[in-house]
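Lecture notes, unit on protein representations.

Consider one protein chain, 380 amino acids long.
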Amino acid sequence: MKITFISNFISHHQQPFCNELISNKNIDFSFVSLTGLDEEKKNIGWRIEKNDFEIKAYESSDMLSKAICCVKSSDVIIISQSYVSQWIDICLENTNAIIFEYGERFFKGGKYKVLSPKGIKYRFKNYYLKRNDRRYMLCSNAYAASDLALCGLFYKRCYKWGYFPKTYNYDIDLLLNNKSRIKILWVGRLLKWKHPEIAIMLAKELKNNHINFEMEIIGVGPLKESLVDLVNKYKLNTHVKFLGSLSPENVRTKMLSARIFLATSDSNEGWGAVINEAMNSACAVVASKAMGSVPFLIDSGFNGIIYEYKKDYIPYKEVSSLLLDSQKQSRIAQNAYFTIQNEWNEKIAAQRFIELANNLLSNKNIEFNSGPCSRDSILK
């Protein structure tokens, strides 16, 4: 089976899945990169590995031609939703291939955007005029299927998907024993829609209620100065530390020492691969339901705690319950670790994807009960 993956570049969230495909002797795999790594990603420590299976279509007309030939000779095409308008006609010229688009949600800013003239024109040109039984959707956001249903697209053709950072194996008991029981970690760019201020306000509430804790915030961004002002205002300097920008490897090291991981983004967070990484690091995750990965990865109360995202809501109750109950904290952290080990990882994703693609090529049906490549449902 020949599989071609079309996207901007191979991020460290996609590399492990690609490695699994290339290691399969029955798969001829290529990745078509359409851009290089941008400066913003470089500045926060992202790096791209050298891959023999990568075709850098942006480098020259010859490489672009090679990429087009590769797509036209593939059995299976995976294409980022961001590049559908440029590449869907080329993909559809290959009448033998099945096409999996992968993406987050159409309406991050609110479902009212379904009425946007620009959006209607885009969908009409790239979807309504080009409906095809060979097109499927890999939903890298738990709300993507709902957005698509609102548009009348991909009915019964949506599968759960996501991003799959490298999965590490640990001695779970040793890992939990080596963690700081009171450490809370927040990771992300310091942007408005990621709401790092919620972490500071949570710290204020914990301090006021005399609950012992430490908090580390990793990331840089335009909100840094205002966050430092809040820390100074509420005299949180001994509790909250800003660590700046760290490499992905150093972020994972910090996760290994943290007991609680806090994720506060609103619906503009398409996925949030830090959730995968924190769960793999046996953190008890407290996360906003609005984030794209959260309803897929977390069963609230079992392997994490989900709170309803509302303006000015501070998840004090959720976090304090973990700080005050070490057994609950450890139980949730252990279940989180095994959720990634047993289902939401690159190996399972690659195995299931190959099985799903084989069955669709043969006009057969296959169903997974949960996890990657299971049928996606419509969430509100």
